[in-house]
Design a protein that fits this description.
It is built from 15 helices and two strands. It is mainly alpha-helical and 367 residues long. The chain has two domains: 218 residues, Cytochrome Bc1 Complex, Chain C (Up-down Bundle), CATH 1.20.810; 99 residues, Helix Hairpins (Orthogonal Bundle), CATH 1.10.287. The protein has a two-stranded antiparallel ribbon. The longest helix has 32 residues.
Length: 367
């Protein structure tokens, strides 16, 4: 009798990590799912230890972060891990979603829908966490982004005041953001488990986009070794950033304590939100900008319904491959424009790239 197959708990682990039937043609692009799982746990664990020393009060929050960096043993490392880990998490997630778009993983509807939900919740969690240090950019980003909800007819202003806990961003806002930022990662973890359940129910896609039921192999050791190798390389890259350039993704304005009377020259979110931020500010109408901002991510939910090609993978359509890489370049350009000052020619370029972003989805539909 085999323990790993007969014991109920061990058999679940065995069927998920050892004997899991996997397509024999998977490439290193299928590593990013496991990498995301590792970095999610890094974020949860580092955030848990940081919360021991964080104070959710507008008068103490900024100083508590400085205290972590200067006085807590290895507190600087935890803070750097958590801050840069968010950037690494989104970098991996965008690559993971791009791979899904390129190879037709959106055909597995439940897996794709749960993945997009994880993206949305991760964005919300990252925004809430960005506010917590209560620096200049944290305060003004919270003010600007929450004010967008006032564009919702009838209930917008009431919703904004409920989120603020008053008539301006203040102590109740910070307390609520801290509470939600602490809880949401565990909600994400639950949906990740559901995501894996749906993935194991349907099986993985593959580069050719063909049915691979007749040509599968066990996950271990063929793909577990690949995952460990990919994790080693990416974690080395992550450590180099944390130890050599730990503040490369942080805005200098956020090293200044928040001041409601001093507005930063240029208010901008973290780099992983810049593409959506460009779309938001490219539309003159406030309600139109908010709708475009939301749809820039929500449109991913509709991919399984309007991407119904005969073959699953874009790999088999030369023009689709060309459009996909144009889409990727356009995303990078939107990210670059989002970090630029709102003036000509950047405002004009942002409007054109924003239009192209949505137009590309319609091209994917008709090609």
């Amino acid at each position: 009798m085999s323990v790993r197959k007969d014991d109920k708990l061990v058999s679940i682990i065995n069927s998920s990590l050892v004997d899991l039937p996997s397509p024999s043609s998977l490439s290193y692009f299928w590593n990013y799912g496991s990498l995301l799982g590792v970095f999610l746990m890094i974020q949860i664990m580092s955030g848990l230890f940081l919360s021991f020393h964080f104070s959710g009060n507008v008068n103490l929050s900024f100083d508590s972060v400085i205290h972590m960096m200067r006085d807590v043993n290895y507190g600087w490392l935890l803070r750097v891990f958590h801050a840069n880990g968010a950037s690494m998490f989104f970098l991996l997630m965008y690559i993971h979603i791009g791979r899904g778009m390129y190879y037709g993983s959106y055909r597995f509807k439940k897996t794709w829908m749960s993945g997009v939900t994880i993206l949305l919740l991760s964005m919300a969690t990252a925004f809430l966490g960005y506010v917590l240090p209560w620096g200049q950019m944290s305060f003004w980003a919270a003010t600007v982004i929450t004010n967008l909800l006032s564009a919702i007819p009838y209930v917008g202003v009431m919703l904004v005041e409920w989120i603020w806990g008053g008539f301006a961003v203040g102590n109740p806002t910070l307390i609520r953001f801290f509470a939600f930022h602490f809880v949401l990662p565990f909600v994400i973890l639950f949906i990740v488990v559901m995501h894996l359940f749906f993935l194991h129910e349907t099986g993985s896609s593959n580069p050719m986009g063909l049915s691979s039921n007749c040509d599968k192999t066990v996950f271990h050791p063929y793909y577990s070794v690949k995952d460990i190798y990919g994790l080693g390389l990416f974690f080395l890259f992550f450590m180099l950033i944390c130890l050599l350039t730990p503040y490369v993704f942080m805005d200098v304005e956020n090293f200044i304590c928040s001041d409601p009377l001093v507005t930063p020259v240029h208010i901008q979110p973290e780099w992983y939100f810049l593409f959506a931020y460009t779309i938001l500010r490219s539309i003159p109408s406030k309600i139109g900008g908010v709708v475009a901002l939301v749809m820039s991510v929500f449109i991913l939910y509709f991919l399984p319904f309007f991407m119904s090609h005969k073959f699953r993978s874009t790999f088999l359509y030369w023009f689709m491959k060309y459009l996909f890489w144009v889409f990727v370049v356009n995303w990078f350009l939107l990210t670059w424009i989002g970090a630029c000052i709102v003036e000509v020619p950047y405002s004009i370029l942002g409007a054109h790239f924003s239009f192209l972003y949505f137009f590309m989805y319609f091209l994917f539909w008709f090609v």
